[in-house]
Write a structure and sequence with these properties.
The chain is built from 16 helices and 15 strands. The protein is an alpha/beta fold. The strands form four sheets. The chain has a seven-stranded mixed beta sheet, sandwiched between helices. The relative contact order is 0.16. It binds pyridoxal-5'-phosphate. Pyridoxal-5'-phosphate binds next to helix 5 and helix 6.
Length: 450
């Protein structure tokens, strides 16, 4: 039987009335339509919630790793200076990601600090950066006494808007930090072209983007250096941990030295009495062992996340006011550290996003509202008005920074973004149907939320 084409509104109406499956000749359950969707009362208003089971937990552990960790523990060889595991992890991670070299670090933050340092970001410099990100991305720029200059986001892609980069460059700009937020690849050709034209360094913040791909290549291998985080919530987790990927031995040797108290490494030579600048940002052996055990699963897990995310995209875009993210030009594989979409409240009787989030949580679907408008947060003003910054940057530069710190695309994104945690994407198809059904049910009953 040929299915009769329905308008989007008819689909929603039919879905909520529970007749869609039968109209098309499918059994009701084949669309994953939960019978609870027919209930008029939302869970937030006292109805029965849609998702009653649990969601996959995070992180997981692999029992096969326990013996190796115990042996390392008993050996007393806990740091990279007298153990082999950190170097082994570096080799395996570089291979997995398609990079020439990897340097493991204590965290994503210390990876970024090291990368900025070695690529020459210094006090008084300016660094272009995505505003829709975790706080660490711009905190590390402050740690070098440089000025983060936010480039507006494209609300459709959730990413830096490449068209707006060039307009923010000044004679003090030295680098760009594009962020593959939520594991969604940035349009790196556009970023690299601007960087090349203006002689800028590119440091990819790939802290949420393990195995994401841009034109078939892994994110974090496309700029001068790429930085990763292995903190507890991450797809590759070790409690804490980080890495830098790079293809240039000269640069990577200097990264190694800097993260290891300035001890010269590889091609570096130290004149007697002339030690190098450096910090202790080393990864420890236990972190490397945990990471190697997690590496056995990450590709398979990412496949499951991707399949579920694409399924959600397909289903959710049918609901008025729900807009899944649009991949940037050249993005070939996203890895969904969070699953993002935009909530257009005007389609939901102007129900505020916070109320929508509460209603969704009440249905048993954990969710969050994404990042806030961080370009306007108090931390930035605190730094810009500090004694050091007022010495390093002229009054007129700081005044202009404040005037230009208007990011309408990012404001819109922050107002509309909704996200689901990555571990939810490891759930079953029935779990994904619960998400779709919960949002459909809220849409159908939106009047009761006003
Ligand atoms: C986008 C981004 N950048 C940087 C970091 C910093 O990484 P870490 O927490 O490992 O220091 C994170 C970690 O959450 C992140 O998500």
């Amino acid at each position: 039987m040929k299915a009769k084409k329905l308008t989007r509104r008819q689909v929603i109406a039919a879905t909520s009335a529970g007749v869609f499956g039968t109209m098309l000749g499918f059994p009701f359950r084949s669309f994953g339509i939960n019978s609870k969707i027919q209930q008029k009362k939302l869970a937030i208003n006292g109805g029965e919630k849609i998702h009653t089971g649990s969601w996959p937990g995070w992180p997981y552990w692999d029992q096969s790793a326990e013996q190796g960790i115990l042996e390392m523990f008993r050996s007393g060889r806990w740091w990279r200076g007298n153990g082999e595991h950190v170097a082994e992890f570096e080799k395996r991670y570089a291979e997995l990601m398609g990079a020439k070299r990897c340097l493991a670090t204590a965290s994503g933050t210390t990876a970024l600090i090291t990368a900025l340092q070695v690529l020459g970001v210094d006090a008084g410099d300016e660094v272009l950066v995505s505003p829709y990100t975790f706080i660490a991305t711009y905190n590390v720029i402050f740690s070098h006494k440089a000025l983060p200059v936010f480039v507006d986001s494209d609300p459709e892609t959730f990413l830096i808007d490449p068209k707006k980069i060039e307009g923010r460059i000044t004679d003090r700009t030295v680098a760009i930090v594009p962020v593959h937020i939520y594991g969604l690849p940035v349009d790196m050709d556009s970023v690299n072209n601007v960087a090349k034209k203006h002689n800028l360094r590119v440091i990819e913040d790939a802290c949420q983007a393990w195995l994401a791909e841009y034109r078939g290549k892994r994110t974090g291998t496309l700029g001068d250096l790429g930085c990763f985080s292995f903190q507890n919530s991450k797809h590759l987790a070790a409690g804490e941990g980080g890495a830098i990927l790079g293809n240039d031995d000269f640069i990577m040797d200097r990264c190694h030295a800097y993260h290891n108290c300035g001890r010269p490494y590889g091609s570096m030579k130290r004149a007697p009495g002339n030690p190098h600048n450096g910090m202790n940002y080393r990864m420890q052996q236990s972190q490397a062992l945990i990471l190697m055990s997690q590496m056995n699963r990450i590709e398979k897990d990412n496949d499951v996340r991707l399949a579920n995310a694409l399924y959600l995209d397909k289903k959710l875009k049918e609901i008025p006011g729900i807009v899944p993210y649009k991949p940037a030009e050249g993005a070939t594989r996203a890895v969904y550290h969070l699953y993002p979409f935009r909530y257009i409240k005007e389609e939901f009787n102007n129900v505020p996003k916070d109320k929508f989030l509460q209603a969704l949580s009440a249905e048993g679907i954990p969710c969050s509202g994404g990042y806030g408008k961080q370009n306007k947060d108090g931390l930035i003003e605190e730094v810009l008005s500090s004694r050091g910054y007022m010495r390093l940057y002229s009054e007129s530069r700081l005044k202009r920074w404040r005037e230009e710190n208007q990011l309408p695309g990012n404001d819109q994104l922050c107002d509309q973004a909704v996200t689901f945690y990555q571990s939810m994407l490891l759930g079953t198809r029935a779990d994904m149907d619960d998400i779709v059904n919960a949002i459909t049910r809220i849409y159908e009953n939106r009047a009761s939320l006003v």
